[in-house]
Every structure is written in C-alpha cells, then in structure tokens.
C-alpha cells in the first residue's frame, strides 16, 4: 500500500477545505492506486470495498446487454469519485454496470472504515459524496432522455462533435461510436455513410474526419448528448 | 404540521430497528403529509427541502423531453423514500425529473435538520438512505438497458403483461403506454394494432384486453421491463 504523493487533496476542491482532523483521517487511510489503460475497475457481482478518487486519466462506466452490446453511461476524470464501488455493496444483485480505464489512471483508494468514519463525522464529506451521487443520477437521466427521445442521426452528430472537440480527426471505430450512443454498429455505419455523402465527414478505417461541423451542429439540435 | 399516527416507523423495517434515541429524532421531526391523486411531488428547479417516506399509495417519477413526451423512470410505493427531494438540492440545475402521485398518497416528511442529524449519527440510517440511492440508480440503469437494447415490440409486450398482472383488461391510453416504455404514441398504436391482428389483445378506447398472454410472454423475452 503506497502513500499518495503529498498534496493530492488539493485536487479535490471540496475535500481540501476540510478541517485538519478530518483531512488527517483521509490522508491516513488512503493508498495510491495506478491502473494501466483497459483495466477493469468494476464488474457486476464483484464486491469492491474501496472508495476511489480519480487523480489522473479517465474511467468509462457502461452497461452490456445479453448480446454484448455496450452503452456508455458516463466517464470519470480527474477530481471525480467512483460511487459504484461503494453503491454496489448495497444493491449488489441489481447492478449491471462495468467500469474500465480508458487511459492509464492514477487514483487514491480510501478504506471502507475511513469512508464510514468521515460520513459520520463530516457534513462536508457527506455533501461531497451526495453531490457525486446526484451528478451520476443526472448523467443517467441524460442518457435516458437521449436514447428515448433523440433520433440516432442527431445523437450521432452531437457525439461526433463532442468527441472531436477542437480536433478534426477522431480515432474511433463504428462499434465504439455505437456504444457511445446506445445503438448497433450497422445502424451507425449506415448513418455515417449518409453523413459522408452529404460532405459532413470523411471516413477511413478506425478514423473519422469532421469536414462540416456547422451542419453537424444543426443536426445535433439543442440536445445535451 | 400533523404528527403521523403512531407506529408508522414499523412500516419502514430498516428504521424500526434503530435505537430509541435515534427513533426519537425521527418521530420528533416528522410530519404527516396527505396528497390527492395527480398531485405534483417534485418538479425540475423546484427546491423541496423535506425528505419523504411513502406510507400508502404510489408516486410516478418521470422525465419529459422538449416536445412533452414522457418516460417513466420508476415508481415509489409503501416503504420507499423519495431521494429526489434531497438530491435535487445538490445538483439542482442538472435534474429534469418530475414526480406525480398516481393515487392518493400518505407520507411522512422529515425535516432537513433531522435528516442531517441522523446522517451524522446513525450508520443504519445512512445505510437506509444509500440503499435507496443504489436502488434508484439500478432502476435508471434498467430503463437504459430496456430503451437502448430491447425492441419496442418486446418492451410493449413485457409492459402489457406487467401492468395487467392477473387482470385481463387494462384501463390505459396509448399515450400512457408510450410514456411507460419511452416511445411515441403513434409507434405504440401501430404495434398494438399488429398485436390485435395476431389475436394477442383486443383494443377499445382507453382499454386493452390481453387475449393471448403466452404469445406476449414469448415476444417479451427474458428482459426485465
């Protein structure tokens, strides 16, 4: 069990303002965790007692259906906490979420006991944990709105823009894009071909180039994919 | 502010085993709440400080898209707690859920202060609250799986069977059924007509009669709608 490098608390702003005695509990019971890319953080029916605080890198949380189709629920980046590890202990049988590192991840793991102590003792720690829960529920509600109410075309356009951000070319397969928006690979390939025909994107193996962001933006509409 | 009738704690089994001092906090800070059917319990951007424990009746929690299409997220019955009322305070702007009573509802409202006191003081109360959070997250994940991965036909068949339970005739409009499974009314009407043609249901205004449950069950498949 390695002690995290000093100053890690400053990366979690709600925690850095805790009084010294509560910060001492946090730092005294935390271990540094380093995970490579594509490592399993969480699987259904797998009990994991530690409470994870992400310092660097990105974790993808997703579900699989019985045919192995994936849908992305949310991502955790620096400053986030992974609530599934603690929640799963409570509603174990009903969970079907997986979590995998998308990049190398550095995290801090807090022991169960310290988590319980801080929940009992610190109103600010409780509010930090509850805020994370509320944000994850809001994430799930956003996924539901998108999947239930937005057309595949508008979700795909919104997703391409979000993933591209300020780059023009994306390294992503049609299968991965399907997971991002909860659809099937064939459906995504068909829509991408339509987008290409309209001159909005160029397609190559494992690569998509955005050529007309303005048209994609109009198609994406005011949604929040 | 009315005091709830004695013995209400026994209806929430995890709470009835709290030690006397913690039970005294609960009973001392709780008020009886009676709501008629179709009353608003919760709306986006509406701050509601109380923590609600449902004793009788049923609350429907749902989202609306910008065209007013509804999708049901989950229902709360006797013994449940409504976590949205507390969660919304934390992630206020990002929530888009509504809650409405489906029947007359009797509930107990706990003050914010008592909620905070018990969260600080009682490990069992915390576990009761976290379990409710975990169950609601599991509910949202189930909705996502259903909407993303199951065909409308299999979701509709599963929903008809679940709503009918041991009755044969359902009083429900196509619009309401659409909300149950996150689809549009026209889509539902088209599928219901197909079901009727196959002899699985009979349709009348505001009413659906199940005539071939076995075929509906085969269509519903092993999913968990």
Automatic annotation (TrEMBL), chains A, B:
In its keyword annotation, does this UniProt entry include Zinc-finger?
no
Q: Which GO terms describe its cellular component?
A: cytosol
Q: Which InterPro entries match?
A: cNMP-bd_dom, cNMP-bd_dom_sf, Env_Response_Regulators, HTH_CRP, RmlC-like_jellyroll, WH-like_DNA-bd_sf, WH_DNA-bd_sf
GO MF: DNA binding; DNA-binding transcription factor activity
PROSITE patterns linked:
CNMP_BINDING_3, HTH_CRP_2
Q: Which domain of life is it from?
A: Bacteria
Q: Which UniProt keywords apply?
A: DNA-binding, Transcription, Transcription regulation
Q: Where is the HTH crp-type domain?
A: 150-214
Report whether Translocase shows up as a keyword of the record. no
- What Gene3D superfamilies would the database entry show? Jelly Rolls, Winged helix-like DNA-binding domain superfamily/Winged helix DNA-binding domain
Which Pfam family, just one, is annotated for this protein?
cNMP_binding
Q: What is this protein called?
A: CRP-like cAMP-activated global transcriptional regulator
Its taxonomic path starts at: Bacteria, Pseudomonadati, Pseudomonadota, Alphaproteobacteria, Hyphomicrobiales
